[in-house]
Amino acid sequence: MTHIAVLGAGVVGVTTAWYLRQAGYDVTVIERESAAGMQTSFANGGQISVSHATPWANPAAPMKALKWLFREDAPLLYRLRADKAQLKWAMQFLQECRADRADANLVQMVRLGLYSRDALQQLRADIDIDYEQQTRGIMHFYTNQAEFDAAIAPTERMQELGCERHVIDINNAVNLEPALYPIAHKLKGATYTSRDESGNAHLFTQRLAERCIEAGVKFLYDTEILALNTDDYSARPHVHSITIQPKGENAQTFSADSHVLALGSYSVSLMKPLHIHLPIFPAKGYSATYQINPRAPHLAPFVSLIDDEFK
Ligand SMILES: Cc1cc2nc3c(=O)[nH]c(=O)nc-3n(C[C@H](O)[C@H](O)[C@H](O)COP(=O)(O)OP(=O)(O)OC[C@H]3O[C@@H](n4cnc5c(N)ncnc54)[C@H](O)[C@@H]3O)c2cc1C
After folding, report:
1. What is the pLDDT of residues 203-252, one digit of tens each?
2. Choice from 263, 284, 306 to test ligand 1 binding pocket (greatest atom count within 8 A of CB)
3. Which of 6, 19, 39 to mutate to test the pocket of ligand 1 (most atoms within 8 A of CB)?
């Protein structure tokens, strides 16, 4: 049986391992943490949001980024450094801000998003996996008229591409999500996407990892991947093995027929010696988890929300 090593046990690695196993491959997942979903997939926003497919690189982005550079509370912080990799990434980002590139990227992101959301819904139906999912749609709301106006064209474009995102008025927004009532006077508009959903990405990753083990996938946790080994430095080098280091042990070689790289932003440094430069530059995000007051649960949002201006 063909043996595939999946490098990284975030949501991407574990989901890849699941589908490869279902397709009949012998699969080993290698991860430096002691469990699955402990890094970026640990506490994200949990949104399954095809409606969030507007690329960050768009014609308005350079001006916004320039303004944000000087604001400590900017929704996205970008600190300029004398770093060749950062400069190269920034130049590529700027090229993608052209209107034609932004539209091409939006089309691809909506298609990928629709496909992924369908795949998730199918997986849930097939294996009955519970990860605190909520299927109540996603609402983007706007407190700035210019931001709301700018959201209308991409919303209509998404509709053309099959994403059911619609502009809704403020009354409708507050009816759908009564927790918005206290800030209703600040709202300029909203959009709502009924088939988008949300859930706990960490729980999903851990529960799917359990199902993977039941299906015969092997997991090597506490194991750092140090290098991808190849004798071939062509444009598409074949990786014949990897160098790994289990915690407290010496480095050793691990061989598989194929390798899937799912190390998030850490993929860049492992690919560099192969002369493959991935256009990935890590960004930092924050999340906070709150207990809902049991005496006033109605004050907590029921629908998954995005304050689009402040991300
Ligand atoms: C604050 C925040 C909010 C977000 N909200 C959303 C959202 O609402 N919806 C959404 O779709 N996305 C959201 N995202 C993005 C989403 O979380 C990521 O795209 C996703 O988790 C990436 O998964 P991954 O498997 O690619 O990476 P990761 O989860 O980072 O997995 C990579 C794994 O590789 C392992 N690894 C790395 N290097 C090595 C090595 N050398 N050896 C061994 N193991 C290694 C790491 O330990 C890690 O477990 C958010 C991100 C952040 C930060």
Report:
1. 999 999 999 999 999 999 999 999 999 987 777 788 999 999 999 999 99
2. 263
3. 39
Query: Which CATH number is correct for 3-42+202-274, 3.30.70.260, 3.50.50.60, 3.40.50.300, 3.40.50.2000?
Result: 3.50.50.60
Confidence of residue 84 (pLDDT cuts 50, 70, 90): confident
CA 188 / ligand 1 centre spacing (Å): 33
Ligand 1 in reach of 86 Cβ (< 6 A): no
Task: Give me the residue label for tokens 């009816």.
Answer: 175
Output the six-digit token pair for 9: 């046990």
Q: Which residues of 270-302 are buried (b: 16+ CB within 10 A; e: fewer)?
A: bbeebebeeeebeeeeeeeeeeeeeeeeeeeee
CA 281 / ligand 1 centre spacing (Å) = 13
Residue ranges per domain, the chain? 3-42+202-274, 47-199+285-307
